[in-house]
Amino acid sequence: MTAILALEEVKVHFGGVKAVDGVSLSLRQGALHALVGPNGSGKTTAVNLMSRLVDPTAGRVLFDGTDVTRVPRHRLYRRGLARTFQGIRLLDDLTVRENVLAGLDALDLPDARKASQRRDRADAALARMEILDTAGLEPSALPYGVQRRVEIARALAGDPRVLLLDEPVAGMSAGERRDIAEVLHRLKGDGLTMLLIEHDLQFVLGLADHLSVLNFGTLLASGEPQTTAALPAVREAFLGG
Ligand code: ADP
């Protein structure tokens, strides 16, 4: 297996709280990996570890075969890691395109220094999310599901190799979820490696290539999605959560 991003025996302890407590996890290149678990099981902390927003108390983070445990996050993002957050983080006094450009500016990519190159990249990312027609609008004028797509477009503008999505469909209608599922499927077809955090197990089952289940900061199970979801321990954790 070619792992592009991996956690090796990582722990994140906040005082007495063991948010993540000895987890090893690797994302196979080109696969859509789902990370599920009840509330408080450590999913967001795991993504924060992978994107260098928190330092591990112990263990290592590897990206593309190198140890990035202490690498500043902007360097990691420039090497091809991107993420979205649980809540919407768009600037309402900017247009959709300007929001995407702001994400790109932060990366300061050598091949996107000209305004025209940056605009092309932003528009390509919006087109990938099928929302190029909203480029000149302000996010607050758009339905919630479209705003979430803008966030994914912003993450895609730097043309990342790995995209971490923290509950991208939370709060979406059933129709919006179906649409996003299609878009994620297509991104996978383009070869993008993704980690999808979700607490709705059903949503990820039709979509993910690999399922990992966290519970109380530890990895309860990891493997083929249907088989993993059917394990008694996994079912129990979800009934309890
Ligand atoms: P999930 O995403 O699965 O809901 P989190 O990773 O957000 O879980 O949280 C895991 C545990 O770590 C929870 O008990 C949470 O309260 C705790 N936690 C997360 N971040 C912090 C922090 N910055 N300080 C203290 N406790 C935290």
UniProtKB/TrEMBL annotation:
PROSITE patterns: ABC_TRANSPORTER_2 (PS50893). Residues 5-241 form the ABC transporter domain. It comes from the Bacteria. Keywords: ATP-binding, Nucleotide-binding, Transport. GO terms for molecular function: ATP binding. PANTHER family: ABC TRANSPORTER ATP-BINDING PROTEIN, CONSERVED COMPONENT OF ABC TRANSPORTER FOR NATURAL AMINO ACIDS-RELATED. This is ABC transporter ATP-binding protein.
